[in-house]
Amino acid sequence: MHASVGRHGPRLDFGDALQEGWRAFSRSPGPFVGFPLVVVALQFLIQPLQSQISNGGVASSDPLDWILYLIGLTANLLLNLWCAIGLVRGAGSAIQGGHPSLGQLMRWDGEVFGRLLRAWLLLAAVVLVPLIGLLLLVGGPLALLGFYADQLVPFSRTLVEVLGLSLAVVFALLLGVLLLGVIYLAINQSFLTQIVLFERAGSRTALQRGRSLVDPSWLMVLLLMLIAGLLMLLGLLACLVGAFVAWPLVVCIATAAYRQLVLASGDADPLPPHPSP
């Protein structure tokens, strides 16, 4: 491992992370590919619940269809979180030299699941609260101005146009700032699942830990995430079958990068040691 600690904090060597992630995936490719297959199969079984709200492009008016849709949506979220925890757990074991089985990946851990769910909900709130505030404080008046423009024109067309243009510019600028904030958060929370699982951190602590861990190497983590996204895209293009390889591989790479950053910052190895045979 070539990561080092400098005066600006730890730096990520994504080349090492890619190699270590690939080695980890190679230790148990069958279980790593099999678990996402199981999850996708379960999601396919509940898909009819979510298809009830639309018939030929027309939204259903039956409340029961919407209840079933919400149940299906919730089930999909739970399955995705279950898969994320299992893959990260398996990646940590494989990086430490283990050969995780499908049963180990599928093992349910309600405590970790609850912490991860709360962390993701908190992260969603961090994004949604300013977005809703922007829509209410700027988007609302802009929409009302556009709706009642014809009634206001007799007073002063120039005033209406200037006010509308000013609101539109402010809205665009603030939306752009918010988008940059979302991108920043998306990168510095790249290891949220790893932090929750291996450091047993609560939701607020996990978000703060993600920021302190990633910020010194933010650009390198951004590059790593772009490479991971490219791997996922290539997997999807390979008749979708490759996605079941790319998905766990990306998780192994991300977990290797997370471990590298933790060790480079001077903290103890966060991954549990693999028991000796």
TrEMBL record:
Keywords: Membrane, Transmembrane, Transmembrane helix. The chain crosses the membrane at residues 29-46, 66-88, 116-142, 162-187, 218-247. This is Integral membrane protein. The lineage of its organism: Bacteria, Bacillati, Cyanobacteriota, Cyanophyceae, Synechococcales.
